[in-house]
Specification:
This protein has 344 residues and is α+β, with helices and mostly antiparallel strands. The protein is built from ten helices and seven strands. The strands form two sheets. Strands 2-4-5-7-6 form a five-stranded mixed sheet.
């Protein structure tokens, strides 16, 4: 419903006052003309008093309230639109209040979602820390209770305990990285480098792990020896590639293949890491980059993982103002691709 302007409100009040005065004065006046004239004068005076009174006090105060509310509204485009709009104060006040309620409702919903994510994150961290700690604790207590004398058992248990300690160390390091990223402490050290050289470094680094599962690491651009120069943080992109290739090895099929390819566009280069592993079901794709999200929890027990690798990958890529995508089909394999800025 459209609000009443000061002019209309003053007119209605003046007419009411004049009408009441006319009715009362008619009982004492001897002439209808005098009654009508005096009622008109009273109505006119009432109009002037009401209009300037409302304008000076009520609407001035409403304008002050409007200015306070508009300062709390975050949408700059909305502010500019309303400030340039020729609406009266009451109409603007109504619009501002509705907008402020809408923004605060969204803000409250976001805070609730953040609280839910915080609780979920703490629960996941506790679970991920508990498993290796309990395992190490079990091995040590078993050794202390007499198994230390058996050299074979001692060696086997110490090796297992060491593996769990290594996993715990990697988990803590990943947690520190995630915490720094989400606290806004991630700083990029941009430099120009050849992405092909970096890819070959990563392949050399993970070649032994791949051979243990009989997985072949190949590139699609072997015939093209021209360098592909990109502008990015070398260490962050190295970590991205290591995480993606390591995942393809960890969850790939034996005697499978991981292929790294480069696609060049006008101002960017797309890096693809493809495997012919088990693939990812469609319902999991939307959440694959979430912290601690597991597609197959049973498979994680045989292939230890911190559950933070892909989350770190996504943060690192997006910190470069680039994008990362995943496509996958069960039984066929997965393709992770991310873009990088091409260096001039």
């Amino acid at each position: 419903m459209r609000s009443i302007s000061p002019l209309s409100l003053s007119l209605y009040l003046a007419m009411a006052v004049g009408l009441v005065y006319g009715v009362i004065f008619s009982f004492f006046a001897t002439s209808f003309t005098i009654t009508l004239l005096s009622s008109g004068i009273v109505a006119l005076m009432s109009f002037v008093i009401c209009y300037f009174g409302i304008r000076q006090f009520l609407y001035t105060r409403i304008e002050d309230i409007n200015n306070q509310i508009i300062g709390s509204i975050q949408n700059t485009a909305f502010k500019n639109k309303m400030q340039s709009r020729s609406a009266d104060a009451l109409e603007k006040l109504s619009t501002y209040v509705k907008r402020l309620i809408q923004e605060k409702t969204i803000e409250i919903d976001n805070l609730k979602e953040l609280e839910r994510m915080r609780k979920e994150f703490l629960g996941d961290v506790a679970h991920e820390l508990r498993s290796p700690i309990f395992n190490v604790q079990g091995y040590i207590h078993t050794l202390m209770e007499g198994a230390m004398e058996d050299e074979e058992v001692r060696s086997r248990f110490l090796n297992k305990a060491a593996k769990h300690v290594d996993h715990l160390s990697i988990l803590v390091e990943d947690l520190v990285t995630i915490s720094r990223i989400e606290a806004g402490e991630l700083k990029l050290e941009l430099m120009v480098f050849d992405i092909k050289e970096l890819i070959h470094e990563v392949i050399d680094l993970l070649d032994l792990s791949a051979k243990q599962k009989s997985i072949h690491l190949v590139t699609k651009y072997n015939g093209n020896i021209e360098p592909n120069m990109v502008k990015a943080d070398l260490q962050k992109i190295r970590q991205v590639l290591v995480n993606l290739v390591n995942n393809s090895i960890k969850y790939g099929r034996e005697n499978g293949q991981t292929t790294i390819n480069l696609l060049e566009a006008h101002n960017e280069i797309t890096v693809e890491v493809a495997d012919n592993g088990e693939g990812i079901a469609k319902e999991h794709l939307a959440r694959i980059f979430e912290r601690f999200y597991r597609v197959d929890k049973a498979r994680v027990r045989s292939e230890p993982s911190t559950g933070l690798g892909l989350a770190i990958v996504k943060h690192f890529v997006e910190a470069h103002k680039q994008k990362i995508l995943v496509t996958s089909r069960e039984g066929v394999g997965s393709i992770f691709s991310f873009t990088l800025e091409k260096a001039n």
